[in-house]
Amino acid sequence: MTPAKKKSVRKKKATAKPTAKRKKAAPKKAAPKATRKSAPRTIATADSMARQQREISVSEFFTKNRHLLGFDSPTKALLTTIKEAVDNSLDACEEAGILPDLTVEIKLIAENRYKVIVQDNGPGIVREQIPRIFGKLLYGSKFHRLRQSRGQQGIGISAAGMYGQLTTGKPVEIESRINKRKPAQYFQLVIDTLKNEPVIKREREVEWDAAHGTRVSIELEGTYKRGKHGVEAYLRQTALANPHVDLTYQGPGEEPVHFERASKDLPEEALEIKPHPYGVEVGMLLRMMKETKSRQLKGFFQSEFSRVGPKAATSIIEGTGLQNTTSPRRVVPEKAELLVKNIRKTRIPAPPTDCLSPIGEERLLASLRQQIPGAGYYEAVTRPPSVYRGNPFQIEVGLAYGGGIAGDELTTLMRFANRVPLQYQQGACATFKAVMATNWRSYGIQQSRGALPTAPMTLMVHIASVWVPFTSESKEAVASYDEIIKEMKLALQESGRKLGRYIRRGQRERDEAKKRAYIEKYIPHIGIALQEILGLSEAQEKKVVDTLTDTLERSRKM
Questions:
Q1: What's the DSSP call for residue 326?
Q2: Rounded CA gap, 151 and 205, in Å?
Q3: I want to staple 477 with a disulfide (CB 3.0 to 4.6 A). Which of 425, 426, 496, 536 is the partner?
Q4: Domain with residues 60-259, CATH architecture
Q5: CATH architecture entry for 361-503
Q6: Are 273 and 352 in contact (CB under 8 A)?
């Protein structure tokens, strides 16, 4: 058999079909698909849907949406609790004319479980008001007043207590004393979230060493962190924006930290003002006219709004078909809309600014030097008051540059609203946008596109207003009104120009020092060269060198 035929035979054997003994396995049958029996559909009727409707308590709403109040993470929850308690303490002390002494303490109870204790030396709280202040959301004295204050909505401290109640089940503990002659009151209370009402668990009179003040304790689940967004950094910024406060802080397992007050003067008292007509809308105007005690429309505008005189009131009413003597309660929505349009056309002076209490350039500089020591240059700028939507506001900028501040990192930006540090949502804040829109290169500072300036600088921007337009209830970013960003940019540019002069002066001095160093280095060589060229004696050479040195000294003093 030839080799070709042998190869063909082997190929046939290799491709031969298997014998009958090796049968193919039968394919598995697919399992039948499960059939889903649909339940009979329930058809809702108008009556059945009506029976399901019920009122939603504000406490119940924020229980399910606590992220709106700044409790969306364990780290922020701990910081927000401290923030709300500190804000209440500072507002109370300032309103009572007391230099605030605050103590903040955080105790570790168990893993990720802490007890926050904040104590002040304020005027205290009367017994009847304690349950409502700490156990009822949207309850307070500041919402209806147009004057600068930290708190606005009456939510903060009660929301912090509600968060502690939700995460640990523990009630809020409050001790408060209004004077030496009366005992301190002690409360343990929780919030009935379905009714938004306080429930008192325990109440009694207790002995307390303090003559007056309030102490609040909240146990909650949280995460304690140090660093840029930590509690100590927040309290340091609080001390920076409030030079009159003396604050002691003790973290869990840490040594106490003391922030001494940089000024013994309380801030100027912010007076309450009436709303300005430029900020009123049709619905608000109708409500005000229903509630006013004025019997005539002209008197209504003069008594219920700021900066409206007889001439301006008459100008607002003209052309609407109404009379100066018309009763405000009889004005219909169509006429109210015409009144609002006339308000926009009428020239009305800006609202008074004694409702604001800025930090002030002098106190801001003192605070910067105390809280950020070692810088080479400090600057503070306070802009004149301005207005957005009828609300007066004022912008302040402070900066510390050079010295011990790291120079190869981005500028540290601190944002404040009514003396309260803003820690989160920096990119959404008008302050950040104003800093980014400022041309820092023209002041001798490097800045990459889309980034903060790179410089050894700490920059703080403060807005003081009767009503800060926050982007959310958590009060972490200021809304980007054109008027606010414009004023921020003007304040930043003013401080930037002053800083630029300092930087350029320093550069000139460094250049001159460098030149003098070169001259001092080569003066002896010049003397030797002149001696060799002119054949001078050693005495003549010394005289030439002394003359050159004296000339250099005179130029240095000029």
A1: S
A2: 29
A3: 425
A4: 2-Layer Sandwich (3.30)
A5: 2-Layer Sandwich (3.30)
A6: yes
